[in-house]
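As promised in the previous annual report, we have extended the structural survey to additional targets. Below is the entry for tRNA epoxyqueuosine(34) reductase QueG.
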Amino acid sequence: MSCGISKAEFLEQEAPRLEGWLNNNMHGEMRYMENHFDKRLDPTKLVEGSKSVISLLLNYFPSEVQNPSSYKISKYAYGTDYHFVIKDKLKELLQFMKEHIGDIEGRAFVDSAPVLDKAWAAKSGLGWIGKNSNLLTKQVGSFYFIAELIVDVDLEYDLPVTDHCGSCTACIDACPTQAIVEPYKVDGSKCISYFTIELKEELPVSYKNQFDDWMFGCDVCQDVCPWNKFSKAHSEPLFSPHPQVLEMNKKEWKELTKETFNEIFKKSAVKRTKFEGLKRNIEFLKD
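The corresponding structure token record, generated without further manual editing, is:
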């Protein structure tokens, strides 16, 4: 796990970016992105009396990947749902801080509140926002979760790092649906992750045969990123996948039953799309 700290204050540079992204409808049907605009940009409006944002990264890069003749699941969803795993770790850290520093009040956030995770991680020096809009690091690439503790004490703040994407356009060139509309800007409404997880309606026929066999999420822009050559396998047992996630082939996925779905994904983030959603995605991928 990596840790960086920044001052809890208004994210001045992010405000026009977020406003433009929403105005251009790049959030698609993710209407929740329109809510709590002020809180997304100012943690002091989210957590009263907050002074510091502690950003944390937790690696999820797996030691093994799926059977190559399978429909694909994004690596972050292989094991136990990260929301539960990380929330517990953050509560432990907050308790540790209370014991060693004194009376601290704070709240833990894991991708479930109006917090701009990547912006805070970049501000605290944990990496830079890449052309695929993911947080990248020279040390371990980008396969990690981002979480925050927002606390009411002043701490020593870290400084941002420089951008190391250079002239590389690997992620832009590789995106199956051209969702990276320009460097550093992703149209969420064109992203395979959006279609296979967020979109509850029928998948648009215009994108048929463009999903590159992804049935839940997509890792293409991370898989091709040169910085991910430095990814190392995680050591968190809870992120280890159910054996069937790695072993099943396309035929077996096509024949997936609700019982098998519930067994394999009992504690997984894949539950978010529900059995019917995953079946819809698989049907869309059928030859």
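The first helix runs from residue 14 to 23. The radius of gyration is 19 Å. These points will be discussed at the next consortium meeting with the crystallography subgroup.
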